[in-house]
Amino acid sequence: MHQYLFFIGDFPIRMYGLMLCTAIFLATGTAYFLAKQDGRWHEHILDIGIYGGFAGLIGGRLWDVFFFDWDYYSHHLLEIPFVWQGGMAVQGGMLAGIAAGIVYCKLHNIDWVALADIVSPSLLIGQSIGRMANLLNGDAFGTPTGGSFGILYPEGTLAYKTYGPVPLWPAEVWEGQLDIVIFALLLLFRTTKHARGQALCMYAMLYSVVRFFLEMLRGDYAEPWMFGLKSAQATSLGFFLVALGFFIYCGWLEKHQPVAKEKAVGKKSKK
């Protein structure tokens, strides 16, 4: 891993920032491809990618600060913008990015649920590259493996500061790889007959499952937050249950909407 690409004087160009920019760029490009392939709203993707990307960075940072590390940042408020120290929560970035996209869609009369179904796989591309950024930066690391296998982080990284020169589980690497697996599964799911909104729900459910179990290996924070679960586990469980509920509701709505429309047409014809 390599934290710095080069220096301009004393100012470092960090691999973390470069990889996050790459993540936003490639996720937006993938979303554009998927939307253009579908034939709807692709001309709006670049704007949504810019707004959603910035919102995601802010949301990801604030989520990490308030849900994961508030005990520290409550006493170091000036360090909240120091994202290079590590600390960008995927769940907060996802929520903020989607919220920004919804606002944009509302302002431009776009069916945001249908668009989210189309582009949801592209979010996994951004998340996977984001985990590459974590690896290069030495954050989002795992706990000690207890053996001679694992990742050895160099001095200067948060992982080394936390555990020293001991092998750690490659939690961020495995999550990035599983993001690609979910990406492929979502593409396959979109080829099947499904109700409006179910692809977005499937994205939330699959990622939540992966995140819930990988949190058992994470070592950058370990304090239980709720019911003995880490904060990311508790929120992943919440996201999964909400997404599952909406997945079922979307399927029910798809089956009953045609009936409702037929009844409405029948009443109009009688009049």
Short structural description:
The protein has 271 residues and is mainly alpha-helical.
Terminal-residue CA separation: 73 Å
Indicate the percent of residues in helices: 55-70%
Largest sheet: 2 strands, antiparallel
The largest beta-sheet arranges its strands as 1-2
General shape: globular
**Uncertain spans:** 259-271
**What's the number of extended β-strand segments?**
2
Individual helix count = 9
Q: Give helix and strand order, one letter per element, not per position.
A: EEHHHHHHHHH
**Rg estimate, integer Å:** 21 Å
Account of the 3D structure:
- This protein is mainly alpha-helical and 271 residues long.
- The protein has a two-stranded antiparallel sheet with strand order 1-2.
- A hairpin with a 2-residue loop joins strand 1 and strand 2.
- The longest helix is centred in the C-terminal third of the chain and has 40 residues.
- It is a multi-pass membrane protein.
Topology readout:
Layout: E1 4-8, E2 11-14, H1 15-38, H2 45-68, H3 70-73, H4 90-107, H5 112-137, H6 158-163, H7 171-190, H8 198-214, H9 231-270
Name the features:
9 helices; two-stranded antiparallel ribbon; globular; mainly alpha; 66% helix; 271 residues; 2 strands
